[in-house]
Amino acid sequence: MCMRFAIILHLRQSTIASKWKLELKIACTLSLSIIKASKYHLKDVIIGKIYFLLVRIKIKNMDLEIRRRESTGSGANTHVETETLAKFELMDGAPVRGESIPIRLFLSPYELTPTYRNINNKFSVKYYLNLVLVDEEDRRYFKQQEIAIYRQQDS
After folding, report:
1. Which long-range contacts (CB under 8 A, 24 or more apart) does 56-59 make?
2. Domain positions in the chain
3. Sign of CA dihedral 122, 87, 142, 97
4. What is the pLDDT of residues 108-118, one digit of tens each?
5. What CATH class is the domain 15-152?
6. Which of 41, 118, 131, 138 would staple 143 via disulfide (CB 3.0–4.6 Å)?
7. Cα separation of 148 and 20, whole Å?
8. Cα 99 vs. chain centroid, distance in angstroms?
9. How confident is the model at residue 108, as a pLDDT?
């Protein structure tokens, strides 16, 4: 006999509001920062900007990815599955010091679920923003930041 059930978790916006700053520094060659919220509802928009403080490497392109990591099981029987849901090209070409690139990424076109952490120590769903920079020598630089996604209560 198979039982199915659904859990709908609503969180108030006031308990969600928080900011974070993503910084990427590569040994005195590149320094950039992004400021945005760390929690979004399912139909929200990720808004921020990338500001280049120091550029000493030749960047070929830069992408922002939304990744979902699902883990099931516990202990040695844990199975982790990671999926890239969206890939958004931010820049193509070399930036200069002081350059600013705005970010506006709508979440509504993607099949997202709320973030779940350690449900009965057996199941979790986490989302990450992954910033990927590729230089002219095809070296890749990554910075990953966890974000929380919640279901907004209907008004």
Report:
1. 56/28, 56/29, 56/30, 57/26, 57/29, 57/30, 57/135, 58/94, 58/135, 58/136, 59/30, 59/91, 59/93, 59/94, 59/95, 59/133, 59/134, 59/135, 59/136
2. 15-152
3. negative
4. 999 999 999 98
5. mainly beta
6. 131
7. 12
8. 22
9. 93
